[in-house]
Structure formats: structure tokens, C-alpha cells
């Protein structure tokens, strides 16, 4: 009987060391079991089985969230950035609350206050870096912003150092280990949530298409994997998520790649989606108007000979971005779900069903964005590696902020370089 009990604990992801930690840090965490489904849906779906009731609840709330997604897209990039920040704060709150609820009996001094203070510090650092990087002309035009930009990193470090000292002063006897544990909990949460959310904002400023297509691919994969798994799922995929199946995983992959191609084709034709967000000095407003790059101009591609006999075409006209969308949708389908598996492992470790009960049938905000954060990192790395090149306008802006003697020195160096390359002479002859 003892061996059977130990094996059951191991199957549930708990080891002997976990049990010791629980006794030291305050016992098992609570498992939320309340039904958070709105009463109107409970009455409307009362005659259905629990399986089909859950299907309809998830479906109705999914449509509502997609509708909300379309509305905020229509409102523009600044509203999207605000929504991303709100989602980030809510996800941070859900994860920190789990730690607080699990170990609340010790009543750690300043734990919640310091957690939110560190969130403020990290957001100040990242948002300051983003504003300086993307809206340099605006920062240089306003004296207070210019001063804050010049000493931004020092101010950020001073703010963090203040929080660090406050943490050290809050240490109390007999709870040192637990307090350092929660200090690490807060910083890992900041790393996962805040850093990734700012990568999403960076992607957004490169053009709304780099924000909408990746997020939509993750949403599509989540929906289609659920649909294929619900109707055709038979083979379990991974023990961390017993309801996930190979049928849903494979079906979601092909559906997401096709969806990514179609969505990219539609969005590539609109400048409001393809142009980066910039600040217009003349109108004192943020704009998304530009001449589309080659990525968003239709080009003709030759179809491989193997496929010509199947489709009956020799060439196809498509946007180059559609080729990149294949990489984005493939990652969203094959690697993105591992963000969900990671979250599932985290929840099983603390024996909770969801991060919260914010969205009926879906759990908390973090339950919906666990894959999005991993996707955001990939998109940011992908843009930096394969898309983004040096920006001449930003280089000129920085050049103009230098002292006259520094500008003259750079000018002479550039002139000598062009003469050595033979380019300056040919320009003078022309």
C-alpha cells in the first residue's frame, strides 16, 4: 500500500522533496472548484452533458474574446499597447496571488508591496527604453523627456536598488528561506510576464501585422487543436495535459498554416497594418502611413515542378510576408503549445485547475496567454534576425544630437571611407 501511494504521488508530479517543502512552507495550496459559468449560460445549457456544456461555454466566450480583439485592433496601436500592459498586470497579479495564497499563513512583511514595486520598476525601465528607441524625435524635442532619457538607466537602477534594500530590511528571523524563495518567485514572474509583454510591444511598433498575425495564429491553433481533439481525438499527446491529443495537435498545425497564409494575404494589402508606428512632428501624432516595403508588394514565384502537375499552375503571385507567415504559423503550432504545457506543469505542481477564474470556461488571463508570451519572443528574434536592418533615419537623428566637433569627425571618417571605396569620386563626376 505504501508503494502504491508513492507511485500515485509521482504520477501526479509530486515527490518526497515536494512533500517536505509543503510542510515547511505552509501546506498544500487550495484547489478552486467553484463553477464560474454565468447563470444565464447555466440555465440555457442545463439539459446538456458536462462535455457538451463545456464545449458551448468555451465556444461562446471564445467568440466574445475574438470580437473584443477586433474592436481593439480597430482602435489602433496605442490602444493595443495599453491593452497589452493591462494583460501583463493581470497575468502578474494571478501568478503572484498563487504564491501569496499558498504561503499566506506566514504573513510575510512587505511581500505584496515589494512585488508590485518591482513590477513598477521593470515597467519603467522597459517603457523608457521603448519610447527612446522608437520615438527619439519626440524625446529630444521635450526638455523633461530628454533629461529622463539621458539618465534613464541610472534612474531605473536606483529605483530597483531601493526595492532591493527594502527587501533586505524586511527579512525576519525564522523565515529567511521562505522570503528568499518568494523574492525569486517575483523575479521569475517578472522575467516571464513583463519581459515578454514588452517584446510584444516591440513587435507592434514594427507594424501591426507583426502583432496581429502571430497572436491570431496562436488563437487559431488553440481553437483548431481543441476542435480536432474534441471530435477526432483518440491518442494522448503529453501527460502534463491529458486532454491534448495527437489528432488535435496535427489538425491544428495544418489549419494554422493555412489560416496564416490567408490572413497574411489579406493584411499585406493595407498600409495601416504593414507600416511601423512613427511619430509625426508636423501633426504631433502617431502615424502608421508609409511606402510599403518589398515584404508587402506582390511578387511572382515559380511553383516547384513536383507540385505543378497537382495544382495546374506554373507560377503564383503572393506577398513575401506570406512566406514568413509560414514560419510564424509553424512555430505557433509546433513550439507555441509548449508554453501551454509549461503552464500545465506549473498548475499541476501547485494542484490548481486554472490561474484564476476571470473568464468562464477558460480560466484566468494567464491561461489564455501562456502560449502568446513564447510566441512574442520568437517573433522578436525572427524580426531581428531576418527582417530588420539598420534604420538610416534613426542614425541621422542620433547624429544630429552630437556636438558639432563630433559630427565633423564622423563626416570626415565617412568621407574617407567613401573615397577609399571609390564611391565619392564617381558621385562627384556625375
TrEMBL record:
Family from the record: Belongs to the CDS family.
GO CC annotations on file: endoplasmic reticulum membrane
Organism ancestry: Eukaryota, Metazoa, Chordata, Craniata, Vertebrata
Enzyme Commission number(s): 2.7.7.41
Chain segments annotated as transmembrane: 110-127, 154-172, 179-201, 207-233, 245-267, 321-343
PANTHER family per the UniProt record, alphabetical: PHOSPHATIDATE CYTIDYLYLTRANSFERASE (PTHR13773), PHOSPHATIDATE CYTIDYLYLTRANSFERASE 2 (PTHR13773:SF4)
Catalyzed reaction equations: 1,2-di-(9Z,12Z-octadecadienoyl)-sn-glycero-3-phosphate + CTP + H(+) = 1,2-di-(9Z,12Z-octadecadienoyl)-sn-glycero-3-cytidine-5'-diphosphate + diphosphate; 1-octadecanoyl-2-(5Z,8Z,11Z,14Z-eicosatetraenoyl)-sn-glycero-3-phosphate + CTP + H(+) = 1-octadecanoyl-2-(5Z,8Z,11Z,14Z-eicosatetraenoyl)-sn-glycero-3-cytidine-5'-diphosphate + diphosphate; 1,2-di-(5Z,8Z,11Z,14Z)-eicosatetraenoyl-sn-glycero-3-phosphate + CTP + H(+) = 1,2-di-(5Z,8Z,11Z,14Z-eicosatetraenoyl)-sn-glycero-3-cytidine-5'-diphosphate + diphosphate; 1-hexadecanoyl-2-(5Z,8Z,11Z,14Z-eicosatetraenoyl)-sn-glycero-3-phosphate + CTP + H(+) = 1-hexadecanoyl-2-(5Z,8Z,11Z,14Z-eicosatetraenoyl)-sn-glycero-3-cytidine-5'-diphosphate + diphosphate
Signal peptide range in chain numbering: none
Compartment list: Membrane
Native organism: Pandion haliaetus (Osprey)
Membrane topology reported for the UniProt record: Multi-pass membrane protein
Keyword annotations from UniProtKB, A to Z: Lipid biosynthesis, Lipid metabolism, Membrane, Nucleotidyltransferase, Phospholipid biosynthesis, Phospholipid metabolism, Transferase, Transmembrane, Transmembrane helix
Biased composition (Basic and acidic residues): 7-23
Pathway this chain belongs to: Lipid metabolism; Phospholipid metabolism; CDP-diacylglycerol biosynthesis; CDP-diacylglycerol from sn-glycerol 3-phosphate: step 3/3
Major place of residence: membrane
Chain spans, region Disordered: 1-38
Protein name: Phosphatidate cytidylyltransferase
Keyword Transmembrane helix: yes
Amino acid at each position: 500500500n505504501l508503494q502504491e501511494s508513492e507511485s500515485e504521488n509521482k504520477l501526479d508530479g509530486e515527490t518526497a522533496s515536494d512533500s517536505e517543502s509543503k510542510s515547511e512552507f505552509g501546506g498544500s495550496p487550495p484547489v478552486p472548484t467553484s463553477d464560474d459559468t454565468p447563470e444565464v449560460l447555466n440555465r440555457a445549457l442545463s439539459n446538456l452533458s458536462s462535455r457538451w456544456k463545456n464545449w458551448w461555454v468555451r465556444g461562446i466566450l471564445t467568440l466574445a474574446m475574438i470580437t473584443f480583439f477586433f474592436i481593439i485592433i480597430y482602435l489602433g496601436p496605442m490602444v493595443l499597447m495599453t491593452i497589452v500592459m493591462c494583460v501583463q498586470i493581470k497575468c502578474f497579479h494571478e501568478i503572484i496571488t498563487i504564491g501569496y495564497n499558498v504561503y499566506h499563513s506566514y504573513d510575510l512583511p512587505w511581500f505584496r508591496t515589494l512585488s508590485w514595486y518591482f513590477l513598477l520598476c521593470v515597467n519603467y525601465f522597459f517603457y523608457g527604453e521603448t519610447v527612446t528607441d522608437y520615438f527619439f524625435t519626440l524625446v529630444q524635442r521635450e526638455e523633461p523627456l530628454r533629461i529622463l532619457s539621458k539618465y534613464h538607466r541610472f534612474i531605473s537602477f536606483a529605483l530597483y536598488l531601493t526595492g532591493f534594500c527594502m527587501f533586505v530590511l524586511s527579512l525576519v528571523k525564522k523565515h529567511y528561506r521562505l522570503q528568499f524563495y518568494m523574492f525569486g518567485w517575483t523575479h521569475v514572474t517578472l522575467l516571464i510576464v513583463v519581459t515578454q509583454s514588452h517584446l510584444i510591444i516591440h513587435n507592434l511598433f514594427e507594424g501591426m501585422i507583426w502583432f496581429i498575425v502571430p497572436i491570431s495564429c496562436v488563437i487559431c491553433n488553440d481553437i483548431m487543436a481543441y476542435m480536432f481533439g474534441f471530435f477526432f481525438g483518440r491518442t494522448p499527446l503529453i501527460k502534463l495535459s491529458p486532454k491534448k491529443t495527437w489528432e488535435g495537435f496535427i489538425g491544428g498545425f495544418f489549419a494554422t498554416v493555412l489560416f496564416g497564409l490567408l490572413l497574411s494575404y489579406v493584411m499585406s494589402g493595407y498600409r495601416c497594418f504593414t507600416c511601423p508606428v512613427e511619430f509625426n512632428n508636423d501633426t504631433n501624432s502617431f502615424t502608421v502611413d508609409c511606402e510599403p516595403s518589398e515584404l508587402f508588394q506582390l511578387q511572382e514565384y515559380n511553383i516547384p515542378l513536383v507540385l505543378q502537375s497537382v495544382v495546374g499552375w506554373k507560377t503564383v503571385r503572393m506577398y513575401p510576408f506570406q512566406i514568413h507567415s509560414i514560419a510564424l504559423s509553424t512555430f505557433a503550432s509546433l513550439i507555441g503549445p509548449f508554453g501551454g504545457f509549461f503552464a500545465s506543469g506549473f498548475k499541476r505542481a501547485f494542484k490548481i485547475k486554472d490561474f484564476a477564474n476571470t473568464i468562464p470556461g477558460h480560466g484566468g488571463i494567464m491561461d489564455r496567454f501562456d502560449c502568446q508570451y513564447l510566441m512574442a519572443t520568437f517573433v522578436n528574434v525572427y524580426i531581428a534576425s531576418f527582417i530588420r536592418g539598420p534604420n538610416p533615419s534613426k542614425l541621422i537623428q542620433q547624429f544630429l544630437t552630437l556636438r558639432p566637433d563630433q559630427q565633423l569627425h564622423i563626416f570626415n571618417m565617412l568621407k574617407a571611407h567613401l573615397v577609399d571605396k571609390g564611391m565619392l569620386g564617381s558621385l562627384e563626376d556625375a
